[in-house]
Sequence to fold (200 residues):
Amino acid sequence: MKLSINGLSFSYEDKIIFDGLSLNLSSEKISVLIGQNGVGKSTLLRIIAGLEEQDKGKITLSNNSNDQILIRGNISYLGHKLALKENLSVHENINFWEKFYNCVITDNHHKELGIDKLLNRKIRDLSQGQKKKVALLRILMSDKKIWLLDEPLSNLDEQAANYFKNTFMSKVSDHKLILITSHTKLNMKNESSIYIGEDA
Fold:
């Protein structure tokens, strides 16, 4: 599966963020969008996800569709706002998404991430790293073809970061198209680095 961005332009409050940006992304690689703060990494993910509207340009899925509804219907998105239910427990959040996606996250996932000891705690009482683990579990439940992940490994401990890196790499063989933002390379197998801004 391929996703192409052609001639994309976007401005915010008279500041040009993108001017004719073109990229080709493939499910054969994990695409890592690398750049410093403020260069538009998060904005690009939001445009692809349909949360922002570009000024110009086309986004095409598998060379045959510029239908934004079709593209957005194939997307799971994780932004800086993690979309967790703060007043519910970790277990209640996971249970909600298991029912939504009609799947089950095994106890092994909980233990690998250290979430097994947090299941009865409210989301609001967790650290940012702990919240990120729960939010990423939600993404793992999704059967969507495209994953857009905004700095998914930030605030994670090394064990959790490696766990999710290995999971992302395994999803390439499942033909998931994964686009991740980061400040640096993540050193994953099948990683394709895309530099934007001053790093380009």
Remarks:
- The radius of gyration is 17 Å.
